[in-house]
Amino acid sequence: MEKIADIGVFGGSGFYKFLDNIEEVPVETPYGMPSDNLFIGTVGSHKVAFLPRHGRNHTILPHLINYRANVWAMKAAGCTRVISPCAAGSLQKHVAPGHFVICDQFVDWTDGRKSTFFEGPIATHPSPAEPYCPELRALAIKTAKDLGITVHDHGTVVVINGPRFSTKAESKFFTNQGWEVINMTAFPEAYLVKEMDMCPLNISLITDYDAGLVGDVPPVSHHEVMQVFNNNVANLKKLLFTMIENIPSERANCDCANTKKNSQP
Q1: Pairing mode, if any, of strands 156-160 and 100-101?
Q2: Could you say which of 6, 36, 197, 210 is catalytic?
């Protein structure tokens, strides 16, 4: 497949429908079909591939997403960086609905997901010690602050399998570990991005407090969650497109491109 994009974004149709001259490109992968076609548009000097991880009509549940096919499609399109915005819950009172968290760590609490491209015969063990690209994280944090968006410059996201949410007991356990964010899609998406020598970035949009904080903070109604989510989407668009415009063409301040090379004997 010829190179058609250099930046990838996993996100819904709201991120690309207002762009001009969007091209829809189907991609077949060795891992089956991705969640949807790629939608190719231009942001600044960059060609950007958008892929709605849940499908364009949000019909694919988190535990059923074909993460390997989605990430392979981004690699096949020519992407070197992949941005993964996601809606998320807060596990800590100081991380309030409406805030953004640029996560620097994840905890995998999922079960049964295909989470690696490396299945032999060469023993390959990519290190997830620093799972997200430091160059992209620094740029996202700076851009958010410049735009006046409340942003947390680090945080751990615990990824649960879904589709069910946590019990109060589970959520309280996660809170007690000191983790900040809870979500259902952040793993293995970003880890697979790194396995393919691309730069991963997580942007968590906090829409509500998770169940373990009930009693410590006012419970959030469905109406309030949707209102916060819609406000976050508007801010995410500003953050995403401003940031993409300022991404340098060459990767000079990270080692993400050498992940596979550094993982083999």
Answers
A1: unpaired
A2: 210
